[in-house]
Design goal:
5-stranded parallel sheet, alpha/beta, elongated, Rossmann fold, 7 helices
C-alpha cells in the first residue's frame, strides 16, 4: 500500500493539494498534518512513502523538521518561495513544487517518484539518482552521480572525487556501500568505492591481485577479498 503525507499549515492549500493527489490515483492513503509535531506522530504511526512538505511551517521550518528526524522517507517540497530550491538538494528531494501548484506539475513530480521506485532497478538504492547537493565548509556543489569517480574513507567521513574537487561528507564508506547503486559503484578495498564507468584498464598481478587504472590516470589496488568479485563482474 502506497502512502503519502501532506504537511501544510494552510488548511485551504492542504485540502487543494490532497484533492489533486486523490485525482492522480497514485496513493492508497493520504495523511495530513498542519505542522512538524503532527507530522512526526503520523510518520511514526503510518510510515508514509513520501512527504509533500511545506517549508514555511509554524514552530519549525520544513528543513528544521527533517533535521529533527533520524531518518525520513522521500520528500517533495512545496513552497511559494523559489529561493530554497538549491537548499532542497541538500535533503535529496525528489522535486520542488512552487505554489500555487498546478496539477500538471504535480504529475511530473509523481512521475519522478515513480522512476526512483521502478522495479526495473537491479537493487533498491536509498542514494539519489538525481544530482546531489554537497557542502564542505563554505563551498557547495551540485553533482551528478555519474560524475563521481571515487568515494574514499577518511575515518567516519568519506571524500568524494569529481572533476578536480575532493570534498568530505559526513557519511562512512560502509554506509555508502549499502546505499549506492551496485550497477555503477563497486567497493574495491577497505578504503575506496569506485565508479565502474571510469575504469580505463584492469591489470592482473602474479599475486592474484588486480590494479585498476581510471580514465583520469589514478591507480588503485583491488583487495584480495574483492578480487573474485571483480573477476565475476568482468567475466575474467
Amino acid at each position: 500500500m502506497r502512502k503519502c503525507l501532506v504537511v501544510e499549515d494552510s488548511r485551504l492549500a492542504r485540502k487543494e493539494l490532497v484533492q489533486m493527489l486523490l485525482e492522480t490515483q497514485s496513493f492508497n492513503s493520504i495523511h495530513e498534518a498542519a505542522n512538524g509535531e503532527e507530522a512526526k506522530v503520523i510518520l511514526a504511526k503510518f510510515e508514509p512513502d513520501v512527504i509533500f512538505l511545506d517549508i514555511h511551517l509554524p514552530g519549525m521550518t520544513g528543513f528544521d523538521f527533517l533535521e529533527s528526524l533520524d531518518q525520513f522517507p522521500k520528500v517533495i517540497f512545496t513552497t511559494a518561495y523559489d529561493e530554497y530550491a538549491i537548499k532542497s538538494f541538500e535533503y535529496n528531494a525528489i522535486d520542488y513544487l512552487l505554489k500555487p501548484i498546478k496539477k500538471q506539475r504535480l504529475e511530473k513530480a509523481i512521475a519522478k517518484l515513480n522512476l526512483q521506485e521502478s522495479p526495473l532497478k537491479t537493487k533498491r538504492s536509498d542514494f539519489p539518482t538525481q544530482p546531489i547537493f554537497i557542502r564542505d565548509g563554505e563551498k557547495c556543489w551540485i553533482v551528478k552521480m555519474k560524475d563521481i569517480r571515487i568515494f574514499e574513507s577518511v575515518g567516519n567521513y568519506s571524500r568524494i572525487y569529481f572533476d578536480n574537487n575532493k570534498p568530505l561528507i559526513q557519511r562512512s564508506l560502509n554506509y555508502l556501500e549499502g546505499v549506492l547503486d551496485p550497477s555503477m559503484f563497486f567497493r574495491i578495498n577497505r578504503q575506496q568505492i569506485i565508479n565502474l564507468n571510469f575504469i580505463e584498464k584492469l591489470d592482473t598481478w602474479f599475486t592474484g591481485k588486480f590494479r585498476i587504472t581510471l580514465k583520469t590516470g589514478e591507480e588503485m589496488k583491488v583487495s584480495r577479498r574483492r578480487a573474485n568479485q571483480i573477476k565475476q563482474l568482468f567475466s575474467l
